[in-house]
Specification:
This protein is of the alpha+beta class. Among the domains are: 33 residues; 107 residues, Ribosomal protein S6/Translation elongation factor EF1B (Alpha-Beta Plaits). It is 54% helix and 20% strand. The longest helix is centred in the first third of the chain and has 37 residues. The chain starts with 9 loop residues before the first helix and ends with a helix. The mean pLDDT is 78.
């Protein structure tokens, strides 16, 4: 007659079941910890490195390429400028100087008046500091008074102003026939280097 099977101790039974399920539970916990580590630790670090992220170098590389292309253009421009004849540079500076040069304006207009046997009796200038072009161009408003000479001489005076090397735009002409007194409002221009440099930034 077979011996009766003794009842198994519950603790031994639990230990046996735990031994069976422990690798499974360990595997599940390992996967859970790995997933938590990926989403909590790696994703925040990798995100900025992805396209459009804070540390995405695609935009930086494109900016560097643009800057290098701009530097190349500037070098080419400087090389081309160095080849320009010195006399031509002076002519360009006379047409569009890099400063208002108010004394130079007075001398130039006085010379034109004298060459037509007229007298420059007054001059008033004002630089427009508010209106600046994207390239740094500023405007100088000039009011002058001349006297002497006939009307024909005055017309030649106007023609000489329009033909002068520096650009002048005649805005207004005032004429007093009896005394031969004439008033002019002119406009000329210059390039402000500081404004031009600020506009390029």
């Amino acid at each position: 007659m077979a011996a009766p099977i003794a009842n198994q101790d519950p603790r031994e039974k639990m230990a046996a079941q735990l031994a069976v399920w422990l690798p499974v539970i360990t595997g599940i916990l390992a996967v859970a910890f790995a997933a938590a580590g990926y989403f909590l630790l790696l994703v925040p670090k990798i995100g900025p490195l992805m396209a459009g992220g804070e540390y995405d170098f695609t935009t930086a590389r494109a900016q560097i390429a643009d800057d290098e292309a701009y530097v190349g253009k500037m070098k080419n421009a400087l090389t081309a400028f160095a080849k320009i004849d010195a006399e031509q540079k002076l002519q360009v500076a006379s047409i569009m100087p890099t400063e208002a040069d108010i004394p130079g304006l007075f001398v130039q207009l006085d010379d034109i008046a004298r060459s037509n046997k007229m007298l420059l009796r007054s001059i008033d200038t004002a630089v427009d500091e508010k209106n600046v072009s994207p390239l740094g161009r500023k405007t100088v408003r000039i009011s002058i008074g001349v006297e002497g000479g006939t009307y024909d001489q005055f017309k030649v005076f106007l023609t000489d102003i329009e033909r002068s090397m520096r650009i002048f735009d005649v805005q207004q002409v005032m004429f007093t026939p009896p005394g031969g007194n004439y008033g002019l409002v002119l406009r000329t221009y210059f390039i402000d280097k500081k404004a031009a440099a600020a506009a390029k930034k």
